[in-house]
Amino acid sequence: MKRKKGFTLIELLVVIAIIGLLLSIIMPALKRARDFGMRVVCSNTLKSFGTANEIYTQQYNGAYVPLTYKRGGSDIHWMRNEGYRSILDFESLRGSHETSSYDFPDKLLCPADKISKDLQNISSQNVLTSYAMNTTEWGGFDYIINPTFNGYMGHKVSTMKLPAERLVFIDAIDWWTHWHSADPGRGWNQYGQMSIEDYKDINLHGPVIYRHSEGANAAFYDGHVKYYPKGALFNKKDYEVKPRKPGMWVMDLKMYYARNP
């Protein structure tokens, strides 16, 4: 009777070693492919935000969706603007498991966002979003919360200069962001993805989140979206020089310098 020959221990070890080698080669490639896929989905979502912003101008006398404005004593921020939400069709995108306080439906959250998908991370202001609107033009958080503010923060098509070069929405975890908050040395490099409240505890408001392979997607007023590695959105020399050079972050330099001497 002929005996069947089995694998020797050495042969098994060689096979295991080859499998391990193949996995070490394949897994990083799969991760890169997955990360790129999430980046593309995020980019498409921001593209829809930009398109909705352009449609908004057609329905509201040439005005882009404002960062915020006063109505009946209340602050109406861009992501709670009923007209803008209607254009994006927020409610039809909302799943049965999502509560009414959940500002953005799952389908309009960045797939790489590890924070906003968790309802436990809703901030004290009930903010839960993967994207922020650029507020550098108006001076940042201190100006927004100023009790004397009783105006309107928003641009119009008629006064918008170079819309293809003016940033409007970007990867974040709060509803607003600022040029200075895009500095990865102040936030992302040290803390990565953590909740809004945790960032506020370290006195950093509206941080840009570089969750796409150490980069972020940004949407512009003309509707196009572009990917930036983290070092391209904030140049410390431009921030520290006098006068500052905010570039894509500001449309009206005169207004910016008046509020940021």
What do these coordinates show?
The model has no long low-confidence stretch (mean pLDDT 85). Strand 7 and strand 8 form a beta hairpin. 34% of the residues lie in helices and 12% in strands. It has helices spanning 9-59, 82-88, 90-93, 141-144, 188-191, 196-201, 236-240, 253-259; strands at residues 68-71, 74-77, 131-134, 152-153, 167-171, 176-177, 215-220, 225-229. The chain has 261 residues and is an alpha+beta fold. The strands form two sheets. It has a five-stranded mixed β-sheet, covered by helices on one side. It is globular and about 80 Å long. The chain contains eight helices and eight strands, in the order αββααβαβββααββαα. The longest helix has 51 residues, at 9-59. Helix 1 crosses helix 2 (82-88).
- Counting DSSP E segments of at least 2 residues, the number of strands comes to 8
User: In which range does the helix fraction lie?
Assistant: 25-40%
Sheet-strand content, in percent, reads 5-15%
Q: Kindly report the average pLDDT value.
A: 85
- Major beta-sheet overview: 5 strands, mixed
- Counting H and I runs of at least 4 residues, what is the number of helices? 8
Cα radius of gyration in angstroms: 23 Å
Order of helices and strands: HEEHHEHEEEHHEEHH
Widest sheet, order of strands: 6-3-5-7-8
Shape: globular
